[in-house]
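ok new one. same drill as before - structure tokens go in, u give me an amino acid for every spot. 418 of them this time. try not to just spam alanines like last time pls lmao
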């Protein structure tokens, strides 16, 4: 089944033997945004020179991505749906070029004003456009389980009612979007801070608060009508990143002790909800990030950013190993031939899920050819990681690889619920 996973991604055995992971690319189409999220440096009220890649540039980037055998392509922003027609045309083009896994998402601004006449028809057209574009995954951001707090955070009044209504229409049209949680402090009922010197009782209180918060989030998302959920780990205190979605705002600023505890809370609560909503977050990756924040420098598999994974900036169309490493400008992506980017993955500088999660999930099969002793050491030294890795893999198949055109199979999913 593990090799079936890679066959579905279109990765050949020779590529695995060379130690190449299924290639991924994130294209930031624009850094323009119409929401007021305090946890993001691209929020509407931030003052900086905004940018947008033109259609010709993005088409050329997709052409190069196809040549580089990219299997998973993400369009991000800013708010990519500010330019909806262009975005969905590019999605169709990428699918035409043979890229199978294409994903994008929104802050949900189009779901506002759901009481207005014609909203249902508008959502039905939108659903059909999404379905026909060739998208594999479509996510809608949710900050917390409390509707009023979410809408206040983003300055999107009434958006939750609109999402609830739209999801009913989407289900009728045969598509199932994801709820995307950017982990932040509004997921808990009260502000709690701890550090390495805090009493164990306070650390336990912090952990329990986030465990409860994540449980409420999954229940809230499922109650709205979502059948898939994902979590983005806190993009905090990464000033100078090329991708400005990071922020130093207290809402997403966590120290290492807090990150360990909230990741543990997420790790522990996921099995409770795996039968109720398809949870994309792999527990094996959470476990390795927990070990990292416990002070283990070489926990798990390092990131493939700059080797098989790349980020393209909207300001200039340049490639970077990821959205974090602004100092590693690789130049115009259309000139980047990834045949020459092979190397040993070593980076663990951030915990951004976009690349760290797939690096841990796919690293096992790619690294077994490159460094079999190290791979064996990782699996034998942490038996729980081994169990999590296999469980995550089988769960992904039970969830139909999170295809947003496929309804959930709760019978298969229940097998993974504890």
């Amino acid at each position: 089944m593990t090799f079936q996973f890679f066959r579905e991604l279109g990765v050949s055995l020779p590529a695995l033997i060379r130690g190449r992971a299924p290639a991924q690319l994130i294209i930031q189409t624009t850094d323009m945004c119409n929401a007021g999220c305090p946890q993001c440096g691209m929020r509407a009220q931030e003052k900086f020179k905004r940018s947008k890649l033109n259609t010709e540039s993005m088409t050329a980037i997709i052409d190069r991505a196809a040549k580089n055998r990219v299997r998973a392509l993400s369009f991000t922003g800013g708010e990519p749906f500010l330019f909806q027609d262009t975005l969905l045309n590019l999605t169709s083009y990428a699918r035409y070029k043979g890229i199978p896994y294409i994903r994008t998402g929104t802050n949900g601004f189009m779901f506002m004003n759901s009481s207005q006449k014609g909203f249902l028809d508008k959502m039905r057209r939108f659903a059909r456009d999404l379905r026909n574009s060739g998208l594999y995954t479509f996510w809608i951001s949710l900050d917390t389980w409390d509707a009023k707090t979410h809408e206040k955070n983003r300055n999107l009044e009434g958006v939750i009612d609109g999402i609830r209504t739209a999801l009913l229409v989407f289900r009728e049209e045969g598509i199932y979007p994801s709820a995307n949680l950017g982990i932040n402090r509004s997921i808990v009922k009260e502000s709690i801070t701890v550090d390495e010197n805090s009493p164990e009782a306070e650390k336990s209180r912090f952990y329990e608060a986030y465990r409860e918060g994540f449980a409420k989030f999954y229940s809230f998302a499922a109650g709205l009508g979502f059948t898939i959920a994902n979590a983005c780990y806190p993009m905090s205190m990464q000033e100078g990143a090329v991708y400005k979605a990071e922020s130093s705002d207290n809402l997403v600023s966590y120290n290492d002790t807090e990150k360990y505890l909230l990741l543990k809370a997420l790790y522990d609560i996921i099995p409770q909800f795996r039968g109720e909503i398809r949870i994309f977050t792999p527990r094996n990756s959470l476990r390795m990030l927990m070990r990292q924040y416990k002070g283990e420098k070489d926990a798990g598999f390092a990131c493939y950013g700059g080797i098989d994974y790349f980020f393209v900036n909207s300001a200039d169309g340049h490639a970077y190993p990821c959205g974090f490493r602004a100092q590693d400008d690789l130049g115009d992506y259309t000139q980047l031939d990834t045949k020459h980017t092979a190397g040993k993955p070593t980076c663990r500088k951030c915990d951004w899920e976009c690349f760290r999660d797939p690096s841990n999930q796919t690293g096992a099969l790619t690294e077994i050819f490159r460094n079999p002793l190290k791979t064996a050491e990782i699996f034998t030294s942490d038996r729980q990681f081994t169990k999590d890795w296999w469980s995550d893999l089988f769960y992904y198949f039970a969830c139909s690889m999170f295809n947003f055109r496929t309804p959930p199979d709760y019978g298969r999913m229940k097998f993974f619920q504890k």
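The two ends are 23 Å apart (CA to CA). and btw The longest strand covers residues 70-76.
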